[in-house]
Amino acid sequence: MTKSSKLMGFLIVTLLLFLGLVSQKAFADSRLIIVKYGLSPGATGFSENQTTNDGLQINNLPLDNLGNELSVLSGIHYLVYEISPTGDGSELKAINPPPSSYTVLKEVADLATDSNGVASLSVSDGYYLIEEQTNPQKGLLKAALPLVIKAPVSGLNEVYIYPKSNVDKEKTGPPNKPKPAPKPIEVPKAPKSKDDSSKKVFGLLPKTGVASSLLLTSYGFVLFLIIICLKKRRKKEEEVK
To answer: All domains of the chain, ordered by start, with CATH?
Structure first.
C-alpha cells in the first residue's frame, strides 16, 4: 500500500469519526418550545381540529373550543425540573402526575414567554416536569396542569408544548383594596327642653304683686277717709256741747 493510499484511508476514517461526533452532538439534545395562548373564559382547550398533543407546531390561527381567536401571552413563567420516575414508572402520567410517581433531581430552568408567547430550552435525554406559574397581572389566575415530557420524542428535534389555561381579562392587575365603609352621618341631637313651668310660675308673680299692692292702697285710702270722717264728726259733737 502506497503512502498516498494510507493517507487517504486515514483522512476518511478521521472524517467519519468527526461526522459521527457532530451528528451525535446534534441529535443528543431536544428543543422544548413552550407557546402560551390564553383561553377565553369558559373555554376548556383548543378547537378540535387544532388539539395536538404530539409535539408538532400549530401552523394555523389558534382558536379555542368556543371558536374565539386566541392571543399570545408574554411574561408567563415556567419552572422546568429534571425528574426520575419512581418504581417501574407506571404511575407517572403525562398530565398532572401525582408527586409520589417521581423524584425531582434538579431544577433545570425558570423560563418566561417573550412578546410572541414563546419560551424554549434545550434538554438532554430524560424526563422533565414543566410547571406553569400564575400571573394575576396578565389575568392568569389559575395555572395550567403540570406536564411531563420524555426526551427525545421520536422523530422530533423540536417539541412544541401548548399549556392550556383560562385568562380573565377583567381581573388583570393586583386586586383592588376594599374601600372603607362610609361613616354614618351623625344627626345632632336636639337640645333638651327645659322645664318652662318655673318660668311660667315666676312670670306670674309680678302681676300678682301689682294687683295686691293696688288692693291694699285702695283699702288704706278708704280707711283714711273713714278716719277723717270720724274726726270731723267728733269735732262737731264737741262744738255742740
So the answer is: 28-170 (2.60.40.10)
